[in-house]
Amino acid sequence: MVPTTVLKSVATAAMLTATASILMPAAAQQTEIGVNAAVRNDVTLQSAGEAPRDAVVKGEVYLGDKVESGAAGALQILLKDETVFTAGPNSSIIIDEFVYNPATADGNMSANIARGTFRFMSGKIASNPNNVKLNSPVATMGVRGTMIEGVIGQDAVDLARSEGLIDDTSGVDADNALLVVLRGPGRENQGTNKRGELDVITTTSSKRLDEAGQAAFVPAAGSTVFGPFTLSVEALDVFSSNLRTAPTGASTGEGGIGNVDEASGGDSAISEDSGINFDIDETEILEDLNDATDAADAGNEPDFPTGPECDINPDQTGCN
Questions:
Q1: Domain parsing of the chain, residue ranges
Q2: Tens of pLDDT, residues 166-190
Q3: Which CATH class is domain 31-243?
Q4: What's the 3-state SS for the chain?
Q5: Dihedral of alpha carbons 233, 305, 85, 55, sign
Q6: What is the predicted pLDDT for the residue at 76?
Q7: What is the predicted pLDDT for the residue at 37?
Q8: For residue 228, is the peptide bond before it cis, meaning its omega torsion is within 30 degrees of 0?
Q9: Residue 217's closest CA among 207, 203, 227?
């Protein structure tokens, strides 16, 4: 027979353990998948069961966080496989799957993009289009080793109209329509197709984009994918001004760039729980990205500059 005092001790320990679990901060129970590399104006992240928090440079990003930006906001997220994911103005994005093995560079990622402007630059896990899925309300995008930019909602409809793709809005879902463009190869593209590829898939059709500057338009759920077609320089500039996070180059966005915060000067964002260290001289990475989009705006292929590059985690030695 177990003494009553022992039973009470066991019950008390169990109660204290349960209480500690309840009191433990939600963030401590979540999976860290990256950090904020650059923030422009008003952007929030919201973990499940928590109030929204302001995005700050080097702040942690957790699996399932909901990213929401204001009319002049933008957030650039650096994921652990060196994927760079940018949410532009009026965006709502959730990264709901991220699995990455640094030893093999294997993994999977999926994100739901409900609205707004976005840019995705492939990291190490995007060697196969089945590894990375970006879901919009009207189509799924399979990304392989490349950089893409897109917009969901009324701005996509406006761009499609200005490009002569549609004459009226019959059959167009102004809240959920998607326009997406292939910008060029990602930094980690190791495949034989150095341009990378983007598959745009609906329930009725699919199209593959495999040349820089090719675009596709999906007006509504279940509709045909229109494309590939080539966007005008003016249309590309709309993406550049909305998605630019570094205060360099021209911007056609209303009110200009606004307030920009960046990780720079070799600062580190360290996760003690994960053991991952992000050595971020992110200003150079952001400038590379902006140079790439500037080249696209000028009608050139948006390749990254040659020569020494800033590695995100070069054995903790910083950038060249």
A1: 31-243
A2: 888 889 999 999 999 998 775 544 4
A3: mainly beta
A4: CCCHHHHHHHHHHHHHHHHHHHHCCHHHHCCEEEEEEEEECCEEEECCCCCCEECCCCCEEECCCEEEECCCCEEEEEECCCCEEEECCCCEEEEEEEEEECCCCEEEEEEEEEEEEEEEECCCCCCCCCCEEEECCCCEEEEECEEEEEEECHHHHHHHHHCCCCCCCCCCCCCCCEEEEEEEECCCCCCCCCCCEEEEECCCCEEEECCCCEEEEECCCCCCCEEEEECCHHHHHHHHHHHCCCCCCCCCCCCCCCCEEECCCCCEEEECCCCEEEECCHHHHHHHHHHHHHHHHCCCCCCCCCCCCCCCCCCCCCCC
A5: negative
A6: 95
A7: 93
A8: yes
A9: 227
More confident residue, 9 or 46: 46
Is it the case that residue 22 has pLDDT exceeding 70? no
CA distance 32 to 270: 11
Tell me the pLDDT of the chain averaged across its residues: 74
Q: Report the DSSP pairing between strands 132-135 and 106-121.
A: parallel
Query: Rounded to whole angstroms, how far apart are CA atoms 168 and 132?
Result: 33
What global pTM score does this model have? 0.72
